[in-house]
Structures are given as structure tokens and as C-alpha cells.
Amino acid sequence: MSQSSLSEATARMQVHSAASRFSLVYQPVISIAAGKRSVVAFESLLRINGLGAGEGTVQFITKAESDGSIVAVDRWVLSQVIALTRARPRLSVWLNTSQLSIAHPTFVTDALAAMKAGQVVGQVSFEMTETADADEKILAKRLEDMKVQALTVMLDDVTDGFAKRGLLLSESVAGCKLSRQTTVALLESERVRAEVQQLVKVCRRLGKRIVLEGIETTDELRLAMDLDITLCQGYYFCKPASPANLLQYPQMRPVG
Hints:
Layout: H1 3-18, E1 22-31, E2 38-48, H2 55-67, H3 70-86, E3 93-97, H4 99-103, H5 107-118, E4 124-128, H6 136-148, E5 153-155, E6 175-178, H7 180-188, H8 190-206, E7 209-212, H9 218-226, E8 231-232
Parallel strand pairs: 2-3, 3-4, 4-5, 5-6, 6-7, 7-8
Antiparallel strand pairs: 1-2, 1-8
Helix pairs in contact: 1-3, 3-5, 7-8
């Protein structure tokens, strides 16, 4: 076994032993098109039990990206999402996935095989996160492979961190998301607003989706409407919760 394979095997064992500390919560992505609200998907969000949704979880993910164990974490998350969606054929989940996992030599191939085995291809999409910095050429190749296999990829937090904004022009990417940080900045900065208006125009021209995250107030919702952003997410609509606490949404109700 090569050193890299050995390191990944070790990481998988560490994640497996720590998995009892992990849980997933889900938050709906809401369409506000034509003045009507409807759920188009749910984003899965990793939680480390005992740490909550704040800096503790962020620090865990940062450490996992720095030591390479994030690939094993993302594999675990995918396995949980597949198990959830198998029993809920109306459910669509957007899965946060590190750039390091997308760039990994076997992650995409293994993910596709697992989704095919679970018969959930088409129900699971990927949000490529911006908190790590992977090689853009390798990412572009992996994204092309995912496009060929009809796997949908969104760019997460496209104005933050190590977001590969240039990849948004690729036919392999379905769209992008703007973070809570950007939502706040939009209310405070004309420069940010002008940049986002231009981004919206590009997405519209290319037929790509754009989601405004972190909406918590009526003013922020009005901002999305003013910018002609019709996909939204945030506490204003629903806080992240376990599937058992989201049964008001028909997509979350198991079938059979």
C-alpha cells in the first residue's frame, strides 16, 4: 500500500471511530419566483455533537482539510445522505463537499458508484465549498467528469475564501451560492451590490442558478427580490434541523 493510500485508510478509520460525534441537519432552499414559495432542495450541514453550529464545527472542518481527513468526512456525509434519500424519493439534497474531495483521485468515482447502488442519482447534488484551496485545473477536470455523469455541482460561497469563481463560466457548474457574509455586505456596500448585480447578470445569461443564503429579515428577503435572485435560504424561512423535525415538508416524509 502506498503512503497516500495508507494515510487515507488511517483517516477513514479515525473518522469511522469519531462518527458517533457527527450528525447532519438540513435546511431548505426556497424558490420565491412569481411571488410563490416552494422548496427546491435541502442543504445538508455537518454538525459535531457538543460543538453546535458555531466556531467549533468550523474549526473541525478547517483541521480536517489541513490534515486531509476531510475526504473521509465527506464520504461519511455522502453515505448518510444516500441512506436518507433512498427512503424519500421526492427529496433532493445539496451536499457540501470540500474542494479537496472533488480533486481527490477516487472520490467522484466512488461517490457516483455509491449513488448508483443506492438508486439516488439525480437526488443528490454537490456544493463545492471554498474553505480549502485545491488545484483549479484538477477541479475543472473532475467537474467535467461529473457533468458527463449528470452530477450537478454548485459553487458554494462564491465571493468568499478560496472560491473558484472562474469555474462558474464552465458548463460543468450549475450555479453558485452567496453566503450570509455577502448578504450582510449587500446591505452595507454599494460596491458589493454592484458586483453581485453583475454576477446575477452573468448567471442569467448562462442559464445558471444563484442562491442568496443567510436571509434572516424581511429587508434581506426584499434585497433578494430587488436583485432578481429567486432562490433563497436562511433562518427567515427555516433553521437547519434534523429530518424528524422537518416533516412539515412533504419531501422529508419517508415513503413506505
